[in-house]
Design brief:
Blueprint: H1 2-18, H2 23-27, E1 36-39, E2 46-47, E3 51-60, E4 69-74, E5 79-81, E6 91-92, E7 98-103, E8 112-121, E9 128-137, E10 148-156
Parallel strand pairs: 2-10
Antiparallel strand pairs: 1-3, 3-8, 4-7, 4-9, 5-8, 6-7, 9-10
Length: about 160
């Protein structure tokens, strides 16, 4: 999964340099103040009964440091949170289907925050498990339409 993320970043930078997009031109189009956005990243596939991890990535696309925010991870049916979370402040719901991770204020512009949630697939899970969602909530977000993204979990055969 890290390899996929690094490939996406490298591709983005290469395309930006080919079309002549300088980092300052991106900043000119950012929302004033902090603007948190969720980046979609599907977990690695895992076998039924196996473990994988959900990586919830939040980026500050605004021009100022972000205030405190909370990342909420809703897991698909047949997927349950299990294990040690990062950050340690994350808390799982009673049934294991939702995890909330509070973050302190201070996420700088053009920086990201990540929550890592280990999950276990049910032993009888098959196919592609849909209904996963990562959402970020913060006060005064100027563009709430980018505050959530779905994800799917693929069950290996």
């Amino acid at each position: 999964m890290l390899k996929r993320l690094m490939t996406m970043v490298a591709t983005c930078c290469a395309v930006g340099s080919l079309v002549g997009v300088a980092p300052t031109s991106v900043a000119a189009h950012r929302a004033p103040g902090a603007d948190l956005a969720v980046e979609r990243l599907d977990p690695d596939a895992a076998p039924a009964g196996g473990l994988t991890s959900v990586h919830a990535i939040v980026v500050n696309t605004g021009t100022a440091k972000a205030g405190a925010f909370t990342v909420t991870i809703t897991l698909p049916r047949q997927v349950t949170a299990e294990g040690r979370f990062f950050p340690a402040s994350c808390a799982v719901s009673g049934d294991g289907s939702t995890v909330r991770c509070p973050f302190r204020a201070g996420l700088a512009p053009e920086r990201s925050a990540t929550a890592r949630i280990p999950v276990r697939l049910d032993r009888d899970a098959t196919g592609t498990l849909t209904g996963g969602r990562v959402a970020v909530s913060s006060e005064g977000d100027p563009t709430p339409d980018d505050d959530a993204a779905p994800f799917t979990v693929t069950v290996q055969r």
